[in-house]
Specification:
The protein has 436 residues and is α/β, with parallel strands linked by helices. It has two domains: 29-278, TIM Barrel (Alpha-Beta Barrel), CATH 3.20.20; 281-415, Beta Barrel (Lyase, Ornithine Decarboxylase, Chain A, domain 1), CATH 2.40.37. It has 14 helices and 17 strands. It has helices at 10-19, 29-43, 61-69, 79-87, 104-112, 124-132, 167-179, 198-219, 245-259, 276-279, 311-315, 360-363, 411-415, 420-429; strands spanning 24-28, 49-54, 73-76, 95-98, 116-119, 138-143, 184-189, 225-227, 269-272, 283-294, 298-302, 321-322, 333-338, 347-354, 368-371, 392-396, 402-406. Helix 5 links the parallel strand 4 (95-98) and strand 5 (116-119). The longest helix has 22 residues, at 198-219. It is globular.
Amino acid sequence: MSVKTFPLTKARLEELADQYPTPFYIYDEEAIRQNVMAMRRAFSIFPSYKEHFAVKALPNPFILKILAGLGLGADCSSYAELLLAKMAGITGEDIMFSSNETPEREYRLADELGAVINLDDFTHIEFLERCLGRIPALISCRYNPGPLKEGNAIIGKPEEAKYGFTGEQIIRGFALLRDKGARRFALHTMVASNELSLDYHVQTARMLFELAVEIREKTGVRVEWVNLGGGVGIPYRPDQEALSWDALAAGIRAAYDDIIVPAGLDPLGIHTEYGRPITGPYGWLVARALHRKRIYREYIGLDASMADLMRPALYGAYHHISIPGKEDAPLTEMYDVVGSLCENNDKFAVQRRLPWIETAAETGRGDFVVIHDAGAHGRAMGFNYNGKLRCGELLLRPDGSVIRIRRSETEDDYFATLDARALQEFHSEGDEYVAP
C-alpha cells in the first residue's frame, strides 16, 4: 500500500491561494532531495552510475538546478529542453540527447553543449555527419528489440514503436561509427513507461548487457556504458506498492555479475533517465471546487481542467484526490470531478468516492481539491485549447517557505504570438464580404 499525503494544511493553502490563485502545481523540494539521495545510494553498487533526469517530465530550470546540485544530469529530446538544461548549469556529457526525426539545428546545439548524442536510426549516422562535418568521438545508439521484448500498456509494443535501431542495424551501426572516427560508445534502450514490475526492468538490463557482449564480439567495439532508459512507474493508486530503489539496483547488479563480468566488460558504467519516479510523487495540482451539477450523475467542477493535467483524459490514468481539512471525513459521495473544457473527457475522476465537497458557488469559497502524483508529466503536458491558460508552479522549500518557480499564463501570453499590426492591416485592406 502507498500512503497518499500532502505537505500543507488547509490553512496554509488558504494563505498561498490569496497570493497565488488556484489552480497551481506545488512541488516538495525536500522530498525530492531525499528520494534522489536514496536512489544514488542504491546504485552506488556499480563501478559508475549516472542519472540523466528526463526533462520532459518536469521542464522547469529551478527543479533541474536542484537535481544538478545532487549530481544528476539531464535527458533531453528537443532544442528547448537542451536550453533548459543549460539554464540549470547542466552541460557536457551530463546531457543525454535522445531525439527522433531530429532537425539539424538540434544536433548542432547538442554538439555545442558537448551532450552525448543518442542516435535513433541507422540513417541518422550519415545525417549527423553532414550536420557536424564529423562524427563525435563519443556516440550512443538506441536499440529497439522489437518482438524480443514485451512492451506495456502506455508505451506499446516495441515492434510497433518508431524508436531505435533493430538488432542487425545496431551491429552495423556501431561498426560504421567506429570506421567514421568514433572512439567511445554507449548503448541505450527505452521499452516501457510507468512500469512497476521489478522483473521487467531487470530483464531489460539483462537484454542490454547481452547486446553489449554481442557488439564486442561482432565489431570489436567496447561499450563504455549502457543507458537502461527510464520507465520505472510510481504507485498512482493507494493499493499499489512503490518499486524499491535498493531492490531495483540489486536485481540489475545480479544481471551485471552474470553477464558483464564473465564477458570481460567490467567495469561498465550504468546510466538511467528516470523522470516520473524522481519527482512524480512529490508534486500536486491544487484546484478549487467551483460548481456542483446534479443530472444523471453528480459532478464537481473545478477551476482546473485537462489543459492543466491531461493524463486522466488521455488514457484513463488514475490520480488520487484528497480534500484538505477533510482527510478523515467519511467517503459518502460519488462524484465525477471535472474541468470546464468543452470536451466530455475533461475529467480528473469518474465515479470516485469522496467526502462532501463544498463549492464556491454555494459558499463563496469552495474546498480545495488536491490531485496527487502530478509531479511528472503534469504541467509539462499542458495546452491552450479553448483558450485555457496554463497554471503556475510553486516550490515548497526545505525550510517551509514557498516560492513561485513559474507564473500562471495570462491572456497577453496567449495572444503574444499573433501579429496585431498585421491583423489591423488585414482588416483595413480586405475586401468586404458581399452576399451572393
